[in-house]
Amino acid sequence: MGQKLRDSVVVVTGAASGIGLATAFAFARRGAALALAGRQPEALEAVATDCRQAGAQAIAVPTDVVEEEAVAKLARRAVEQYGRIDVWVNNAAVTAFGGIEELPTNDFRRVMDTNLFGYLHGVRAALPIMREQGSGIIINVSSGVAFITQPYTAAYVASKHAIRALSGCLRMELMLDGARDIHVCTVYPASIDTPLFQRGANYTGRAVQPMPPVYEPEQVADAIIGLAESPRREAYVGMPKEMVLLAEAAVPDLMERKLAQRVDQKHFRDRPAERSDGSLYEPASRQPELRGGWGGAPHRGPKIVGASLLAGLALGGAALLTYRNRDQLRRLTRG
Amino acid sequence: MTTNASIRRLPLQDRRGSLTRHWSALGGLLVHARVSTARKTRNRIPVVLVHGLGMSSNYMTPIARRLVTDFPVYAPDQPGFGASGKPDAVLTVPELGDFLADWTRTIGLERIVLLGNSLGCQIAAACAARHPTQVDRLVLQGPTVDRSRSEHTLPTILVRWLLNATREPSSLRAVPPATPTFEYGRAGLGRVIRTTKLMLEDRIEASLPRVSAPTLVVRGGRDPIASQKWAEQITRLLKNGRLVIVPGAAHTMNHHAALELARVVRPFLLERHRNQTQ
Questions:
Q1: Per-residue pLDDT tens digits for A26-79
Q2: Which of A187, A157, A188, A198 is nearest to A294 (CA)?
Q3: Nearest-CA distance from A40 to chain B in Å?
Q4: Which of A161, A153, A138, A165 is nearest to A263 (CA)?
Q5: ipTM reported for the complex, 2 dp
Q6: Residue A188 annotated among the catalytic residues of the structure
Q7: Distance between CA atoms of B124 and B142, rounded to whole angstroms?
Q8: Is the pLDDT higher at B274 or at A86?
Q9: What's the pLDDT band for B11 if we cut at 50, 70, 90?
Q10: Distance (Å) from the C-alpha of residue B193 to the closest C-alpha of chain A?
């Protein structure tokens, strides 16, 4: 199974920390050739060295994905070094905590610029190369929040919804073009133990933490490896979307209220925090940082209690829907 | 692959151009070459493709096609091989290097880039060492003879050649035919065997320290004939050398990994033109 990825050429953005870093190592261990992108040259070079020690070829290409020309240069550099690009992992992301009314517009825009436009730049840089090759895989790291909404994180949530849209739209265009061997895959991780949270901008006045349960970055890396070996439209790490969507369809008001309360309680710590724009505009660390120190334990899936609660909600919701629309249903069954 | 006219197709970036057959004479010997027809590359330095043991310009066609849109390309059949005339003697590696210098000068090319595969690297290196004013830069893809390993006798060469064949897909579908069977048949087995012996006697490591032209050494990551150690050794011998490894490619990249080879070579060749305008 690992043989398939040996000698693959893989570009990873946001490779100096979190999911990107775990992904770079996962590919390096399988003998892929890597082009690593991130904002901090020192951290990136350290990651490249580690990848080479694992026996893989690796180059560090400092890139801010917000700059379209920088991303185009990243692609050119990879092609110049390796002759092709087989997999492009769009992963670089930032977040900002704050109410929609209090978050500075520039910061909102910066989150969208990095998270959505960064991916757009990546896609536009990679596709001409993949078209010329006739094959390639684009993997976009989105988030579980792409299927729901949350308070105090609107920019991040909107950007992750948008990535889901970008992936799907692109896949449809490639399908119409007959580009059968170019794949677009999206990954939806739940909360992951990465420095994203403490590096995010924060205007709430409260210290943040990831919403439990928290999973490991290596689990997302495994999902990405799986997609590179066998591309599928979507991969989930953590909560599967079906339950959430079912509950939302059945009892939307209840879901929204419960989720809002849960975020308000569980996404923050009971400590104050200084207002800051975090690492939105400047990288935070000169060292690679794999984890955020949030103590993620490898969960296999949602806890039994939570699952049965949602299942109960879903069934209850279905019953509620049936009751509310009983007149229409009677008319339908009569005819 | 079926095409459906109703599906809108974005043009694939097809960078393949066309080549014509070119006949000339050098000292009474007929020389056949495949030459690019593109006009707009006229002010760029021509790339001369140097084929390997027993082969001809045929198997250079894939890389030639990918370069013609950016550079004038010349792929000669060396004396005794392909459709070129057969001299009585079998030429040595330095003599084949001299042929390249003489022929390109005869057809009006003053300065050239040489891109060689396998034995073609040895010939190109000899040419660059002996005719430094003519050779502007070098690309050595899959350089032979690997002396980082102790064994390079005929049997071991055969084994590595067969191993390489398993790593490169069949070229039987190529038009014109680029199979060893066809090509060795044309050259005559006697000439091929004699040339193999001359190849083993020649030492590329003796030519390279005398090469001042910028040189790009390209090795396929899965090449069993030119090892990683050897490629690194050679690169260190050069005054102005650099090494690129293409993951997953094997020994005959000019034919089986032409897209990758063109992509790593193009920026190296364009460097010259960028430096000129500075």
A1: 999 999 999 999 999 999 999 999 999 999 999 999 999 999 999 999 999 999
A2: A198
A3: 25
A4: A153
A5: 0.83
A6: no
A7: 12
A8: A86
A9: very low
A10: 34
As beta bridge partners, residue A331 has: none
Supply the pLDDT for residue A309: 63
AA letter at A145 = V
Using DSSP's 3-state secondary structure scheme, residue A288 falls into coil
Nearest to B174, CA basis, from B9, B30, B63: B63
- Band (B2; pLDDT cuts 50, 70, 90): very low
Q: DSSP characters for A155-175?
A: HHHHHHHHHHHHHHHHHHHHH
Single-letter residue type at A291: R
Catalytic residue chosen out of the listed positions A82, A119, A152, A156: A156
CA distance B250 to chain A (A): 12
Alpha helices in chain A (DSSP H): 18-29, 41-53, 68-82, 105-112, 118-133, 154-176, 196-199, 217-229, 241-250, 252-266, 304-324, 326-334
Instruction: Name the more confident of A324 and B267.
Output: B267
- Residue B10 pLDDT more than 50? no
Contact flag B247-A57 (C-beta cutoff 8 Å): yes
Query: Which chain B residues have a beta carbon less than 8 Å from that of A178?
Result: 3-4, 7, 9
- The amino acid sitting at A213 is P
Q: Which residues of B touch A80 (CB under 8 A)?
A: 263-264, 267
pTM for this prediction: 0.87
Q: Residue B48 has which token pair?
A: 């001369």
Nearest to B247 among A79, A82, A128 (CB): A82
Alpha helices in B84-188 (DSSP H): 93-106, 119-130, 154-167, 180-187
CA pair distance A135, A183, nearest whole angstrom: 8
